[in-house]
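I had to read the description of the data format several times before I understood it. In essence, backbone conformation is discretised, so a fold becomes a row of integers matching the chain in length. I therefore recommend that a typical entry be quoted early in the introduction. For illustration, here is how one protein appears when written out as sequence plus structure tokens.

***
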Amino acid sequence: MAFPLPVSGKIANSPGKKEVFRIMRPQFRRLTRRSLLAGLGATAALVTLAACEPQVVEKVVTTIVEKPVALKWPGTPATMPILGGVPNAPPRATPVPPPAGATPPPAPKPPAPMVVPLYAYIDTVTAGPGESKFNVDANLSCVKTSLFSRGMHIVWRMEVVDTTSGKVLQGADVKDATLKLPHGEEFKFRFARHGATEEAPWFWTAVWDVPMDYPLGVIDYSVVIGTQDGKSITVKDPLIVSLPARGIETRLTIVP
């Protein structure tokens, strides 16, 4: 199975929110028809409309094909994807077994468990169309990712739990929640509903537009949270796996 459309990317000089669906709709219709008729052995095309927030509609087209095709972004170089699927990737090498009679190394032991007054889940997602002050949009909205390009509007999402009571904390429970970036800027988190319906979720968010000349690489951010009853915690980018020599990096990263 292959996906000829990118998973995540940027769109420079993007239009405003009201124009996006009108522009994208014929473009994706052409892509869908071309994918089905181009002799790729397509078996189905799934078209999904998803609302990320009021009056922001994104049309996502996924073409399922019988024969893998090369990953090719149909736009200009400035809109090349940040993340895409590569078909026919080589499998991971089979581990070499230890020599006969060799003693295997002991299994690693986990560190001592931490006891914390608060627990925070934090992730970053792409913004909706037209939100970047630099007019650089992600080609997919509201997608969880740690990769962003200069000019894009990064959205941090957060939930905070009091580990003593198990309560998921809301605006009235938190005295201060601050995003701290390595270059010195700070931004306050805001607790609000995200969506127009009663079922829309409530959570904390902070946002930042990446400057067009911002250095490429990892952004080592932190979030400082203090509650009305005196509890506090500082949270870093969670569950970090950083192996630069192997090209592995899970932290928030600015890429070309």
